[in-house]
Amino acid sequence: RAMRIDYYDRKGDRLKTLDYKGYRRYLDRYWRADELFMKNHQTGKTTTLAFSTYKFKTGLRERDFTPGRLKRLR
């Protein structure tokens, strides 16, 4: 489980940090974070993604994610 990921620009300066918070285990198998917080250190801007519901075992198969099928969903 990732807790934090730091991203750097080409000069080696820290660009962004992504923090994962509120991990919970679903179906006794899948660990998912309830909140992702991204901070851009160069601009000072932030983004928060909050998840309240995850769905597992929805009947989707790997072939449902081919480029052709995904293109038709637009």
Descriptive report:
The structure is a single chain. Strands 1-2-3-4 form a four-stranded antiparallel β-sheet, with no helix packed on it. The mean pLDDT is 93. A hairpin with a 5-residue loop joins strand 1 (4-8) and strand 2. It is built from one helix and four strands, in the order E-E-E-E-H. It has 74 residues and is mainly β. The two termini are 32 Å apart.
Brief summary:
This protein has one helix at about 65-70; strands spanning about 5-10, 15-25, 30-40, 45-50. With about 70 residues, the chain is mostly beta strands.
- SSE string: EEEEH
Number of helices: 1
The largest pleated sheet is described as: 4 strands, antiparallel
Please state the overall shape, judged from the principal axes of the Cα atoms. extended
Number of strands: 4
% residues in beta strands: over 45%
Subunit organisation of the chains: single chain
Low-confidence runs (pLDDT<50, min 5 residues)?
none
In round numbers, the mean pLDDT is 93
Task: Furnish the topology, listing elements before pairings.
Elements: E1 4-8, E2 14-26, E3 30-40, E4 46-50, H1 67-72
Antiparallel strand pairs: 1-2, 2-3, 3-4
